[in-house]
Design goal:
single chain, 182 residues, alpha/beta, 6-stranded parallel beta sheet
Length: 182
């Protein structure tokens, strides 16, 4: 685990929900169109597994993206993420509606974003993070910049950090060890 100041550890301990942007966080930001106009995105299986581990440990994951894409729905289904907001032109408005609907406080939310459209929710959330290749403007205001880039392990890094700081990581590892011995 990376060495964090106690103030950041305290922020992470309160996290019950993780809100993720998609393009530039779960993907490397590239959008590929094939000859039939179908959109393709690259997702990292390690990021996906990190999300699954986090959800099994009781942290809810929500996707909040400015683009509308069926590929996002497919990835959410694969990961069993039930709350997905696409085409979000005003992310802070959706963020506030999530908090109101779930009766949450800002300090219960971790958020990972990569570009200036994410700044308002990154500033509001209890703990904010950005991939190593995020916009410089975003990297200046977040609590944590991951060592890994977007779509290549940044989300997994954040998921593991949350679990480690919350004291749940050893339980996760033990569960996998028990499953392997069966």
């Amino acid at each position: 685990m990376i060495d964090l100041p106690d103030t950041l550890k305290e922020k992470i301990k309160r996290i019950t929900h993780l809100i993720l942007d998609v393009d530039g966080v779960l993907t490397d930001g590239r959008i590929i169109f094939d000859d039939q106009g179908r959109e393709l995105k690259f997702y990292d299986v390690k990021d996906g597994h990190g999300i699954k581990i986090l959800m099994r440990a009781g942290i809810e994951v929500i996707l909040l993206t400015g683009r509308s894409s069926n590929v996002v729905d497919r990835r959410a289904r694969d990961l069993q993420i039930t709350e997905v907001y696409k085409g979000a032109k005003n992310k802070i408005e959706i963020y506030e509606s999530i908090l109101a609907a779930k009766q949450l406080r800002d300090d219960q939310i971790a958020c990972m974003g990569d570009d200036i459209v994410d700044i308002m929710i990154l500033r509001r959330s209890g703990f904010s993070a950005a991939p190593s290749d995020a916009s410089d403007h975003v990297k200046l205001i977040v609590d944590l910049v991951t060592e890994k880039p977007a779509g290549r392990g940044a989300v997994r890094e954040l998921c593991e950090l949350i679990l480690q700081v919350q004291g749940k990581w050893e339980e996760v590892v033990e569960r996998y060890a028990m499953d392997a011995h069966g």
